[in-house]
């Protein structure tokens, strides 16, 4: 079985070391890197290209939500927030920025393993302790879609699709490779539960993501 390549980002050295040790004991994972802050994480992640990033929210310098936004600009790797924070701001901020999951640090090892595997498969994960907060946030808004479903780069690609542009044209306009465009399109279809580009554009217009 191919191991899931994991990168750990956390500013607490003891927790980071313990987490890496735990993951290395699990047959499903291979920890390929670690970082204690957001700036270092961005540089190393773009060199190592893990499958899943485990990312703390509150760190000195560049926080986890900012790291998510930066990573979402150029790549489609999976991001699971692993934090002690239950605050609405951190939770909604991380999800809005494009995190694939949000898990609390007091989770059981087996739950952590399941969460990483689910995120790696392209599924979303929310810790049961914060699920209610998300539902409450949804209830407080009149919008059908209270939080951006897509990253900034995915929104740019979606806007191009709405204008009828081809993969080659989008690649040229956004200065990214055609393979990267196709990856973003695939994630757009998955997130909007659409079977093709036209349906994705239609759904995005219906819920107000694009005009």
Biggest sheet features:
6 strands, parallel
Q: Give the SSE order as H and E letters.
A: EHEHEHEHEHEHHHHH
Strand order of the largest sheet: 2-1-3-4-5-6
First CA to last CA: what distance?
44 Å
- The backbone outline, from C-alpha atoms, is globular
**CATH superfamily placement of the largest domain:** Response regulator
Q: What key attributes describe this structure?
A:
single chain, 211 residues, alpha/beta, Rossmann fold, Arc Repressor Mutant, subunit A, six-stranded parallel beta sheet, 53% helix, 14% strand, globular
Describe what you observe in this structure.
It is a single chain. Helix 9 crosses helix 10. The longest helix is centred in the C-terminal third of the chain and has 15 residues. A 6-stranded parallel β-sheet has the order 2-1-3-4-5-6, sandwiched between helices. The termini are far apart. It is of the alpha/beta class. About 3% of the residues have low confidence. Strand 1, helix 1 and strand 2 form a beta-alpha-beta unit. The chain has 10 helices and 6 strands, in the order βαβαβαβαβαβααααα. The chain has 2 domains: 136 residues, 3-Layer(aba) Sandwich (Rossmann fold), CATH 3.40.50; 55 residues, Winged helix-like DNA-binding domain superfamily/Winged helix DNA-binding domain (Arc Repressor Mutant, subunit A), CATH 1.10.10.10.
């Amino acid at each position: 079985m191919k191991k899931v390549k994991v990168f750990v980002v956390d500013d607490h050295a003891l927790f980071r070391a313990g987490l890496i040790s735990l993951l290395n004991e699990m047959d499903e994972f291979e920890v390929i890197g670690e970082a204690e802050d957001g700036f270092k994480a961005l540089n190393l992640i773009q060199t190592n290209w893990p499958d899943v990033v485990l990312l703390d929210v509150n760190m000195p310098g560049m926080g986890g939500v900012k790291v998510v936004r930066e990573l979402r600009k150029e790549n489609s790797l999976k991001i699971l927030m692993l934090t002690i924070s239950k605050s609405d701001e951190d939770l909604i901020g991380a999800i809005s920025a494009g995190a694939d999951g949000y898990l609390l640090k007091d989770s059981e090892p087996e739950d952590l393993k399941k969460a990483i595997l689910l995120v790696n498969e392209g599924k979303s994960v929310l810790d049961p302790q914060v699920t209610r907060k998300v539902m409450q946030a949804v209830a407080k808004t009149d919008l059908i879609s209270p939080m951006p479903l897509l990253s900034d780069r995915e929104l740019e690609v979606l806007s191009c699709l709405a204008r009828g542009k081809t993969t080659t044209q989008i690649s040229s306009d956004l200065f990214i490779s055609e393979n990267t465009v196709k990856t973003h399109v695939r994630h757009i279809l998955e997130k909007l539960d659409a079977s093709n580009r036209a349906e994705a554009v239609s759904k995005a217009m219906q819920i107000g993501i694009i005009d």
